């Protein structure tokens, strides 16, 4: 619909996002593709003309949570006399498309993660269709070629998807089924998007991919570039001060990428490197393709390249077949590495994955006990890491105001949130902050240089 000037009538769009940073990125891009149709963001269900649930299949009972949300949206839609487009996107949509339309016929659009560039066309089709419009195939065309070039500003820190999908087929994971085979974007498209993000105010970019270090995008020379080479090239982008990447697989950590950690100052000394278990038996059952010792040796090489590297990981407690001895091996690996951060989960079956039907499913009580032990140790390590920052002067990228008046927030090179007193004009700059104290989840500090003393600022920009 357009008004008399020919511009689309203003409509309101609410996107609810669950799960990983890739979903956060996807939600931003869905908002981008719908903006030309007149959709502007809202936080209110009551005023939304369209609601998108961008779902995640990783969390326990994800599908049921989507259905309970859809139940509430049905009432909201009825209250508006049916004038609301409801879409389910993301991995639950991909995996459960048919069930969604059967159980929630008030849903208008179901779209998998490879189809969101088709949203405008699907919205138009939904307006004409009697039933739901479903797109959960893996379309052969590259969705990235069909997205608008002018991304909405993401702020001082931005995400940029460079790779999607996965060919590794870990026993417990739905990603290879929901996101499809590994795909890497061409280098030129990534560099162009990075420049746009910087022009829109980004100082730090986190490169995203389900298996980001499996990146092998086509370079300008026609050859496949690895992630190390891409990082070196991105480090040349003027105004881009910091680069990060996530999520990595230990098997894809090649020499060039490890060397980049030593040689590229813009590559931040923080790495999320999931290990999942410290037991070789369980790692084999998980189809991870590496041993605990492989992981420990890799950590040694990374720390040799970048001695101040902070490591983060993912751990699963109670994978089928896991014994107390396997759990003890996981605890030993965590102690041996010393993580600065970590995500730990109780194993829960994902339908369609090999682990879901494996023999030796672990009792819930045992899973709970193991997870509690793992989390207590990880919490201790995180607090110790944060406390070890006290007394240092850290370069802090200021992201915006803190929670309290006069307070600013930012992040260290090791991704710790930091709070300190300072003027709002610091937003977007990198300033030296003396760390005064480390807490379990954040740091507090004070500006280390008087603001008029420009010569001491790390950020000359
Ligand atoms: S490598 Fe990561 S994304 Fe791929 S199957 Fe394993 S856990 Fe899933």
TrEMBL record:
Show the NCBIfam families listed in the entry: miaB-methiolase, MiaB/RimO family radical SAM methylthiotransferase
**Cofactor info, note text:** Binds 2 [4Fe-4S] clusters. One cluster is coordinated with 3 cysteines and an exchangeable S-adenosyl-L-methionine.
| EC category | transferase
Q: How does it assemble?
A: Monomer.
Q: Where is the Radical SAM core domain?
A: 152-384
What is the protein name stated in its UniProt record? tRNA-2-methylthio-N(6)-dimethylallyladenosine synthase
Phylogenetic placement of the source organism: Bacteria, Pseudomonadati, Pseudomonadota, Alphaproteobacteria, Acetobacterales
Cellular component, GO, one term = cytosol
Q: Where does [4Fe-4S] cluster 1 bind?
A: 20, 56, 91
What is the purpose of this protein? Catalyzes the methylthiolation of N6-(dimethylallyl)adenosine (i(6)A), leading to the formation of 2-methylthio-N6-(dimethylallyl)adenosine (ms(2)i(6)A) at position 37 in tRNAs that read codons beginning with uridine.
Q: Does the keyword Lyase apply?
A: no
Q: Write out the catalysed reaction.
A: 2-thio-N(6)-dimethylallyladenosine(37) in tRNA + S-adenosyl-L-methionine = 2-methylsulfanyl-N(6)-dimethylallyladenosine(37) in tRNA + S-adenosyl-L-homocysteine + H(+); N(6)-dimethylallyladenosine(37) in tRNA + (sulfur carrier)-SH + AH2 + 2 S-adenosyl-L-methionine = 2-methylsulfanyl-N(6)-dimethylallyladenosine(37) in tRNA + (sulfur carrier)-H + 5'-deoxyadenosine + L-methionine + A + S-adenosyl-L-homocysteine + 2 H(+); N(6)-dimethylallyladenosine(37) in tRNA + (sulfur carrier)-SH + AH2 + S-adenosyl-L-methionine = 2-thio-N(6)-dimethylallyladenosine(37) in tRNA + (sulfur carrier)-H + 5'-deoxyadenosine + L-methionine + A + H(+)
Q: Which cofactor does it need?
A: [4Fe-4S] cluster
Give all residue intervals belonging to the MTTase N-terminal domain: 11-128
The entry's keywords: 4Fe-4S, Cytoplasm, Iron, Iron-sulfur, Metal-binding, S-adenosyl-L-methionine, Transferase, tRNA processing
Residue intervals of the TRAM domain? 387-449
Record-stated family: Belongs to the methylthiotransferase family. MiaB subfamily.
Main localization of the protein? cytoplasm
Q: Where in the cell is it found?
A: Cytoplasm
| Chain positions recorded as [4Fe-4S] cluster 2 binding sites | 166, 170, 173
- What EC numbers are recorded for this enzyme? 2.8.4.3
> Record's CDD domains?
Radical_SAM
């Amino acid at each position: 619909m357009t008004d008399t000037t020919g511009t689309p009538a203003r409509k309101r769009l609410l996107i609810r996002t669950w799960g990983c940073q890739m979903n956060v990125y996807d939600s931003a891009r869905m908002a981008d593709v719908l903006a030309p149709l007149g959709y502007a963001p809202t936080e209110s269900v009551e005023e939304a003309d369209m609601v998108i649930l961008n779902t995640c299949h990783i969390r326990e009972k994800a599908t049921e949570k989507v259905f309970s949300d859809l139940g509430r949206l049905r009432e909201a839609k009825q209250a508006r006399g049916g004038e609301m487009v409801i879409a389910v996107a993301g991995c639950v949509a991909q995996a459960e498309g048919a069930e969604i339309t059967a159980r929630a016929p008030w849903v208008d659009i179901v779209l998998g993660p490879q189809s969101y560039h088709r949203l405008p066309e699907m919205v138009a089709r939904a307006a004409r269709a009697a039933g739901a419009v479903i797109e959960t195939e893996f379309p052969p065309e590259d969705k990235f070629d069909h997205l608008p070039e002018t991304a909405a500003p993401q702020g001082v820190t931005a995400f940029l998807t460079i790779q999607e999908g996965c060919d590794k087929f870990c026993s417990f994971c739905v990603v290879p089924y929901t996101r499809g085979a590994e795909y890497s974007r061409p280098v030129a498209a990534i560099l162009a998007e990075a420049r746009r993000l910087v022009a829109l105010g980004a100082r730090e970019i986190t490169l995203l991919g389900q298996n980001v270090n499996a990146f092998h995008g086509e370079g300008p020379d026609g050859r496949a570039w690895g992630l190390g080479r891409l990082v070196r090239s991105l480090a040349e982008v003027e105004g881009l001060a910091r680069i990060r990447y996530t999520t990595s697989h230990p098997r894809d950590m090649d020499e060039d990428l490890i060397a980049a950690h030593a040689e590229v100052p813009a590559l931040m000394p923080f790495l999320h490197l999931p290990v999942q278990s410290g037991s070789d038996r369980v790692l084999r059952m998980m189809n991870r393709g590496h041993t605990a010792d492989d992981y420990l040796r890799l950590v040694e090489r990374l720390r040799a390249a970048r001695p101040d590297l902070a490591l983060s990981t993912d751990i699963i407690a109670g994978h089928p077949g896991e014994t107390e001895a396997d759990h003890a091996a996981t605890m030993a690996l965590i102690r041996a590495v010393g993580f600065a951060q970590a995500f730990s989960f109780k194993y829960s079956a994902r339908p369609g994955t090999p682990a879901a039907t494996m023999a030796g499913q672990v009792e819930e009580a045992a899973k709970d006990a193991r997870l509690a032990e793992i989390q207590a140790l990880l919490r201790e390590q995180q607090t110790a890491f944060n406390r070890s920052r006290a007394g240092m002067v850290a370069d802090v990228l200021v992201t915006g105001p803190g929670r309290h008046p006069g307070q600013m927030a930012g992040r260290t090179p090791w991704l710790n949130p930091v709070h300190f007193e300072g003027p709002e004009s610091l937003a977007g700059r990198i300033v030296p902050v003396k760390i005064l104290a480390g807490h379990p989840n954040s740091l507090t500090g004070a500006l280390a240089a008087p603001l008029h003393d420009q010569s001491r600022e790390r950020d000359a920009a």
